[in-house]
User: What shape does this take?
Amino acid sequence: MKISINDLRFTYPAGVEALRGISLEINPGEQVAIVGQNGAGKTTLVRHFNGLLRPSSGSVWVGDWDTSKYSVAKLASRVGYVFQNPDEQLFSRDVLTEVAFGPKNLGYKKNKVDELVGCALALTELNDKTETNPYDLSPTWRKMVALASIIAMDTPIVIFDEPTTGQDAVNIARIANVIAEIKKEGKTVITITHDIDFCAENFERVIALSNGEVLLDGEAHDVLGREEILAKTYVDPPQLTRLGKALGLKETVINQEEFLNALK
Amino acid sequence: MRERLSFHIKRDSALHRLNPLTKLLLVLALILSAFLTPFYWTPHILAILVIPILSVIGRVGREYLSTAFRLILPAATFLFLMQAFFHPIGKEIIFAFYFLDMTLESLMFAFGNAMRIVVMVSAFTIFLLTTHPSELMSDLSRRGLPGQFAYVIISTLQILPQVQAKAQTIISAQRSRGLETEGGFFKRAGALIPLIGPLVFGSLVEVEERAIAIEARGFTSKHVKTSLHEIPDTPTDIFLRWFLTTLIAASIGLKLWLS
Assistant: This one.
């Protein structure tokens, strides 16, 4: 499902102008990472996709829906949003009920809910923890429960807000795997991240925001190679990219594979 | 959404510059003289003349007026009506309405009491408008108020807005999972369940973290603590406090002598 953003502006009630005219198209099945300094407007932007915020001017369309005309609960059938802190959404007695909460709200039939929950639990490797209380799990596993609870809603668009913050290497690999799997299903994945290596390894398209405006938008390669422009929004290109540049490699490399190929 | 829960308005005025203890004593003096005075008109003079002058000196006249009209006057009016009609003194009925009757004595009594309430609440309002709570608390703990007591007051003022913000995030997260928060009573009551769990749990975790954080900075240490923020205590303050203490002693003394 396509997302179209037309000259979106947003000002918080306190008077902070967080978005200053953003126009973007995000095509079905794209893997988009949004980067930029704190306060650049990343979260403000994605909160418009599921109606948590309404444009001060301009518009956001999700498929054929104008987001300003639909409630958040309605938009939840199209856009899944994984919040940064799992503790701000987990409330059920056990993992299974927690993950089933979203799909039940969306009104799927009983056996469809079971099927979706089963898939989400398998994908997030939570199969053996269905009976556990989410708060008895470690923070990394709670994060996976939060992921599963959104993936089970089977929305064509999934948003992750800082999925790798505070996660160990094993869990980051698990999250990357989840993203790769939902990509295979043809879903759009949008991720806000400060983890630039994670961004380089898992996303095709990178959008850099700065002061509520789009600074760069394009293929991960092109965007992550523009060191000087990224510096404006306090983003460092991945280490390998900088190393490649220092070594005088002709092409911009953003991950291990490309780096090794360029060295051969 | 309000950012904080204190009334304090940051301005520069003679009242703002006074030491918090001096202002606290001023409030006490105003209240005691309004309640203990043997003269009928004292609370009225205080409420109509002294309090407004104080609010102007503190440059919070507009804010005081708005509080007075929205909060203090309605409350005082209610109290006035109740006492004017129901206080059983006096014989000569000057006004009757069905079973309600008012005498001159009950009218005077009610008016006086209402004015005392106005003085009391107004004095506190002006105090809160011109004094930052953390300034008050650091001054009082410097003078020997137990730190725990100051912590309870300050943390209450700080935690409530934080809990509010947290609740907002949790509601957003659950709405993003398709939770319908609009609609009939039962629907909305049901929508509370996914909110309360994370809110209560999260707040408890935060309380613990806060306790550890302040302990890590030597909260219960017995040593004398220094403060980064110096709160001025000028000769004017000391003079005013003597004056106010005398005033308080005088009103208590007068009350005892006359009774």
